[in-house]
Amino acid sequence: MGEGPAFTEVVSERTEMLSGTETILVVEDDDMVRDLVALLLTLQGYTVLKVTEGNQALVMCQSYPSQIDLILTDSLIKAKMCPVGTFA
Question: By Cβ atoms counted within 10 A, which residue in 45, 49, 56, 79 is the most buried?
Fold first, then answer.
């Protein structure tokens, strides 16, 4: 399993697809998790913005001079930012 030319070709195609130029806002209160996620995304070519809590994320979204393409957060922070049912 996981050998041969077909496997190598699929891995090569996926590796090429795992890069981007978009801007991602990472909202995470755990320093180690936030830094690891940011590092991995940066290595793939993304511009990464990091904040620790929901209020900071809102400020960042309002003040960042360019488009933020994706907000990556955990469910605890999401629950603190928005009333119940907002993301239902």
Answer: 49
How far is residue 71 from each of residues 9, 24, 57, 75, 77, measured CA to CA in Å?
A: 31, 6, 9, 12, 12
- What does pTM read for this prediction? 0.68
- Tokens encoding 8: 């190598």
Output the pLDDT for position 88.
Answer: 37
Per the CB < 8 A criterion, the answer to whether 53 and 71 are in contact is no
Under CATH, which architecture does the 18-75 domain have?
3-Layer(aba) Sandwich (3.40)
CA angle 63, 29, 62 (to 5 degrees): 10
